[in-house]
Amino acid sequence: MVATTACTHTPPCPTADSPDRDAARITASHPEQGWSLLCNGAIVFEDTGELLPDGRVITPHRPTDTPALIEA
User: Fold this and answer.
1) Into how many domains does the chain fold?
2) For residue 33, is it within any domain?
3) Which residue from 9, 48, 70, 71 lies 20 to 30 Å from 31 (Cα-Cα)?
4) HSE-up (13 A, CA, CB side) for residue 24
5) Which pLDDT score, from 0 to 100, does residue 3 have?
6) Tell me, what's the pLDDT at 2?
7) Is the pLDDT of residue 55 over 60?
8) Is residue 4 one of the residues assigned to a domain?
9) Domain residues for 38?
10) Residue 43, domain member (yes or no)
């Protein structure tokens, strides 16, 4: 499936299928609800989870979700 983009700017934003999809411009922001709509159709949530236009879900991927280093 080929993802479409609503970009009218140059250069166009990455598609929702691209690994760098989060670099797309925000077209609607709702910080009070914790989400933003990107011009490639992806919805990103403040916890870094994502909902792609085709319905796929990307689980949150915060750097803080990695195990902490234990210092001896």
Assistant:
1) 1
2) yes
3) 9
4) 31
5) 45
6) 43
7) yes
8) no
9) 24-63
10) yes
